[in-house]
């Protein structure tokens, strides 16, 4: 490879590290642990967190393969110190003193598999990992990526309650990929710069429980028809399936999920460091609706959740979508709670 090409690649990575999605400048030392770091989401997520200048320690854990991932990522010339841990006997050391724990662990979806099909496998993994978090870093912010998020977040809550460490302000279901997709699809349809777009996404993180609020999108695009909005909503809800089918049995949404996970983790770091007005959508314990957990805009701060925003004005289409999602989301939440209590 020519030197000019190498310099160009390094420049791109540097710009990625300095992009508006990642924090800049010095701050308190922060340890971030990634559980499932050797997986399809975990590896690119580890790379992106190594680029974040607010991460001083990056702890990578998986049941196997992590030392190699850690060695690879550690060669990147950014400040974060990287350590790799493999096997249950090293989980406690991986978690110790973590400020944020990100959990992408679990099996991915395959063609024809719904998020619900993942439940029995991933539920057990999440329960085990959260038990360890309660023991070794009970005050950490927990970012749950493992699907189905609508059920795994309630499982985590029940585990933490049983262990006496539950803090509703510190448990997050990462629904950022729904926001990322909504922004991307909306910008393309509306013909506006994607970097300027914001679209809140509420509800849950599966199928019809994903409700993008395009009526609140900025910049507004009055040229979009009702049919356009319906199509954009459907595509956002089916984004995961779109990727699974496109990969033809060889993977799921790993790269875009890793990016979304890194963006949300960065928002958490900003909040911990006292940056004002950090607001992102997340699936959290909430009284915004009659459901115990619900995704909406959340202001992040030094304690995790500082404030949960209301839904704001909804279009008739969105009001209908809100009512339609409640039964399915309620069932998923109850399924997670039941699993945690019975196992």
Automatic annotation (TrEMBL):
Reaction catalysed by this enzyme: (S)-malate + NAD(+) = oxaloacetate + NADH + H(+)
Gene name, Swiss-Prot/TrEMBL: LOC120280651
GO annotations of cellular component type: mitochondrion
Annotated substrate binding sites: 109, 115, 147, 181
Annotated family: Belongs to the LDH/MDH superfamily. MDH type 1 family.
InterPro entries, alphabetized: L-lactate/malate_DH, Lactate/malate_DH_C, Lactate/malate_DH_N, Lactate_DH/Glyco_Ohase_4_C, Malate_DH_AS, Malate_DH_type1, NAD(P)-bd_dom_sf
Subunit structure as annotated in this protein's UniProt entry: Homodimer.
Recorded GO MF terms: L-malate dehydrogenase (NAD+) activity
Protein known as: Malate dehydrogenase
Residue ranges occupied by any Lactate/malate dehydrogenase N-terminal domain in the UniProt entry: 31-173
Positions of NAD(+) binding: 36-42, 62, 122, 145-147, 257
Assigned EC number: 1.1.1.37
SUPFAM superfamilies to which the protein is assigned, alphabetical: LDH C-terminal domain-like, NAD(P)-binding Rossmann-fold domains
Active site per the UniProt annotation: 205 (proton acceptor)
UniProt-listed PROSITE patterns: MDH
Database matches in CDD domains: MDH_glyoxysomal_mitochondrial
Keywords for this protein: NAD, Oxidoreductase, Tricarboxylic acid cycle
Top-level taxon of origin: Eukaryota
UniProt cross-references to Pfam families, sorted A to Z: Ldh_1_C, Ldh_1_N
One BP term from GO: tricarboxylic acid cycle
Lactate/malate dehydrogenase C-terminal domain location: 175-339
């Amino acid at each position: 490879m020519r030197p000019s090409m190498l310099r160009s690649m390094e420049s791109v990575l540097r710009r990625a590290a300095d992009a508006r999605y990642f924090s800049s400048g010095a701050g308190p030392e922060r340890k971030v642990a990634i559980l499932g770091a050797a997986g399809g989401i975990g590896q690119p997520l580890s790379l992106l967190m190594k680029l974040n200048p607010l991460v001083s320690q990056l702890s990578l854990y998986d049941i196997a393969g992590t030392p190699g991932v850690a060695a690879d990522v550690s060669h990147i010339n950014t400040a974060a110190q990287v350590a790799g841990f493999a096997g249950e006997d090293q989980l406690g050391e991986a978690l110790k003193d973590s400020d944020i724990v990100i959990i992408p662990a679990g099996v991915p979806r395959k063609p024809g598999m719904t998020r619900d099909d993942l439940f029995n496998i991933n539920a057990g993994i999440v329960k085990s990992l959260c038990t360890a978090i309660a023991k070794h870093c009970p005050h950490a912010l927990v970012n749950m990526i493992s699907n189905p998020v609508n059920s795994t977040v309630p499982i985590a809550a029940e585990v933490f309650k049983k262990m006496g460490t539950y803090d509703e302000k510190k448990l997050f279901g990462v629904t950022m990929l729904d926001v990322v997709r909504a922004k991307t699809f909306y910008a393309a349809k509306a013909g506006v710069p994607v970097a300027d777009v914001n679209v809140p996404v509420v509800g849950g993180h599966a199928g019809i429980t994903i409700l993008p609020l395009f009526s609140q999108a900025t910049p507004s695009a009055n040229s979009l028809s009702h049919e356009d909005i319906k199509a954009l909503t459907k595509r956002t809800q089916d984004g995961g399936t779109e990727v699974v089918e496109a990969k033809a049995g060889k993977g799921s949404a790993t790269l875009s999920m890793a990016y979304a996970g890194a963006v949300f983790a960065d928002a958490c770091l900003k909040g911990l460091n006292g940056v004002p007005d950090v607001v992102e959508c997340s699936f959290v314990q909430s009284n915004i609706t009659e459901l115990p957990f619900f995704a909406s805009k959340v202001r992040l701060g030094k304690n995790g959740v500082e404030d949960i925003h209301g839904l704001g004005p909804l279009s008739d289409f969105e009001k209908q979508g809100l009512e339609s999602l409640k039964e399915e989301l309620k069932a998923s939440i109850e399924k997670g709670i039941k699993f945690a209590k019975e196992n």
